[in-house]
Amino acid sequence: MKPFWRWVQHWWLRPCGPGEVLRVSWPLMVSMGSGAVMHFCDRVFLSWYAPEAMAAALPAGVLHFTLLCLPFGIAIYVNPFVAQYEGAGRFDRIGRVVWQGVWIGVVTGPLFLLTIPLAPDWFRAMGHSAELARLETLYYQVLTFGAGAWICGGAMSAFFTGRRKTRVVMWVDTSAANLNVILDYAWIFGHWGLPAWGIEGAAWATVVSQWYRLVVYLWLLFRPHLREKYGILSGLRVDTALLKRLFYYGAPNGLQLLAEVAAFTLMLLLIGRLGDQAMAATTAAFNVNSFAFIPTLGLGIGLTAIVGRELGRNRPHRAALAAWSAMLLAWIYMGSIAIWYVLTPDFFLLGYGAGMSPESFESLRRTTTILLRFVAAYCLFDAMNVIFAAALKGAGDTRYIFLANLSLSTPPVVIVWLGVHYFGLGLWGCWLILTAWVYTLGLAFLVRFLQGHWRQMRVIEPAPEELVETP
């Protein structure tokens, strides 16, 4: 009989076990975590500059991302294609599918500039105060100049994540996040002889960092040892058949992002009707929650690549093992942070207190501390949402994910809208409904994963003999 520690070692190091999942995913968790730190610093700097600027940044930023969701969701779905092509040994198709994702950004990115004159009416229609709507409009309008870089960069990063070269993504995204923080500090407050632009400076910092990220990925993509093996130059054209295939699987992925983020955006805008203080506390709570949620998204991206590779090799049993390994890691990570949210909420709010007046900070602290208890209550179900959806995406089960998000996201928004407008629903009631929404999404994706339909799915064009599972 093996000693217990040898059994644990075998369990941890086996193919698609927690060790492999963590090895692939930890750079992405760091990468996404650097993004969380970037957004956290962005909001904290804005709270120092003016609390209403912080309150405006979240709804405006989320609205911008809501409109990005469809083209961005299609572009980043290059990841499972790359993973399955590599698993099947079809390297010449990888460069071509990456470029199909890039062309989506080239075409759709400039369209966001057309929404600039519409933004003032959008935010005024939400019933926010005149000053909050003005700041939201300014922040949103500047962000549109980075839309194309965001989409194209997402497709290029998928070339590396799909091949599990996640450290490359970590270094590129971390450097972009660091640049963003430095420019935030300079352009929000006017340091080093630069203008003090406030919330507009925060938006320009994001735009510049996105274009920087795109340029670095382009440079990496055209390195000689990658150009030949993966058809980077030969694939630099529109492939109608492959583009249609990417749309077929990627469009539901983008629509799923759109449905989920749009519901989240509408909830934020409805909470904004409860007053600037409720909006500021909600912004702070979600900003703190990014420390738990966003790194877990990195774990999900790594899982999608592993599931895609194993399905490309016709080994769904290993793909399933990878999903359960990722779920264990996500629960350990998010569960630990949930405990900290409850026991030490003031620790996460130290940054806000450093630059706000004592009276303003105390009001924000009281409300945000309670909201973090809601976050702690749904953390584990949020982990289920991320992990099992990522596993299903790796197989190509994107239509179910979209339909589940659409059907499960609509009722909470309607209930909050009716409650706020007609029944005097307050901030706690809105967050209770939001928590129930996260619970239902997590359970829906768990059930779908257990049903096992995804085991027979592929996103790449298979040969008949590839449909047989190998041992």
What would you note in describing this structure?
The chain has 471 residues and is an all-alpha fold. It has one domain. 80% of the residues lie in helices and 0% in strands. It is built from 19 helices and no strands. The protein has helices at residues 4-13, 18-49, 51-76, 78-87, 94-108, 119-125, 130-143, 147-161, 166-189, 199-221, 224-229, 240-272, 276-312, 316-343, 345-348, 350-355, 358-395, 398-422, 427-451. The radius of gyration is 22 Å and the shape is globular. The two termini are 26 Å apart. Mean pLDDT is 84; it is low at 463-471.
Question: Could you give a short description of this structure?
Answer:
By secondary structure, this protein is mainly α. The chain has 19 helices and no strands. The chain is globular, with a radius of gyration of 22 Å.
Search tags:
single chain, mainly alpha, 19 helices, globular
Largest sheet: none
Find the structural class using helix and strand composition: mainly alpha
- Succession of helices and strands: HHHHHHHHHHHHHHHHHHH
User: What is the distance, rounded to the nearest whole angstrom, between the alpha carbons of the first and last residues?
Assistant: 26 Å
Average the pLDDT over all residues and give the rounded result: 84
Question: Helices, strands, pairings?
Answer:
Blueprint: H1 4-13, H2 18-49, H3 51-76, H4 78-87, H5 94-108, H6 119-125, H7 130-143, H8 147-161, H9 166-189, H10 199-221, H11 224-229, H12 240-272, H13 276-312, H14 316-343, H15 345-348, H16 350-355, H17 358-395, H18 398-422, H19 427-451
Helix pairs in contact: 2-3, 2-9, 2-13, 2-14, 3-5, 3-7, 3-8, 3-12, 3-13, 4-5, 4-8, 4-13, 5-8, 6-7, 7-10, 8-10, 9-10, 12-13, 12-18, 13-14, 13-17, 14-17, 17-19, 18-19
